[in-house]
Amino acid sequence: MNTPKTSKINSLLSMIPSGIVLTSAWLAQQGYSLELQKQYRKSRWFRTIGTGAMVRWDDDVDYLGAVYALQAHLGMTLHPGAKTALSLQGKSHYLGLAEKSVMLFGSPADKPPLWFVKQEWEKQVNFKLSGFLPAELGLVDIEHRGFSVKVSGPTRAVMECLYLSPGEQPLLEVYELMEGLNNLRPTSVQKLLEECTSVKVKRLFMYLADKAGHDWFNYLKKERIDLGKGKRAIVDNGIYIPKYQIIVPKELESIR
What we know:
The chain is an alpha+beta fold. It is built from eleven helices and eleven strands. It starts with a helix and ends with a helix.
C-alpha cells in the first residue's frame, strides 16, 4: 500500500511531461511545499539546475523544456522567435541554418530568471526584450518531446528578423525567408502590421513582401497600416525606395 508521500510523488510524476523544467514556485502552488521539494531532491526524484528550478533526476532537458516552464509555470512571454521560430517550423532549412544559437523574444518586463541564464544549454540562448509587437499576437504552438511551447508564427518571426536587421540579421537572408512565405493569411498579416509599433519593421516587411510578389500581399488593406513619415536609412550608401521611403542595400534591390 502506498504511503501518502509516495502517492503524492507518483501523482506529480504522472501529471508532468518528461523533459521539462519544474519551478519551485509552481510546485508550491500545486501543493508541494519547499520542504517536500527538498525531500524529493534528497531522494533523487529531482535534481536542481539552479535556485528555484529542478528537473527529474535522470531527465535530459533542453532549452525548450526550460521555455515550457517560463511560459506554463511562470506566465512569461519569452518565446523562440525570428529564425529560431522558423527553423522549429521547418521554414528556414533552405538557408543552411546551423543553429548553434537560438533567439528568444519577450516583453521588456520578462527578464529571464538566473537559473535559465546561467544554465549551459545545448545551444547558446540569446534574448531580445521588446514591446514592438503585442505579447500574444502571432504565436503558434509546436509539439516537442511530448509537450508544447509557443513560438512565433511565420509572419511574426519575419517581423522579428526585421527588428534585428540589419545589424544582427542580414536583410538579404530575410528576403529569402520572405520568398518562402507564400501561404500567409492576409487577415493575420494585417493584424500584426497594424499592431506593430516599429516603422522600420513595417516598411521593410511591406517592401520585401511586395518585392516577393506574394498573392496575399494584394489583399492587405494598406491604407490602415501606419508607415510613419519621412525617409528612413536602413543602411548607409544604399538605394532609396521612394514607395516605402527607405534606403536598402544595393545588392537587395538588385534582385529581380
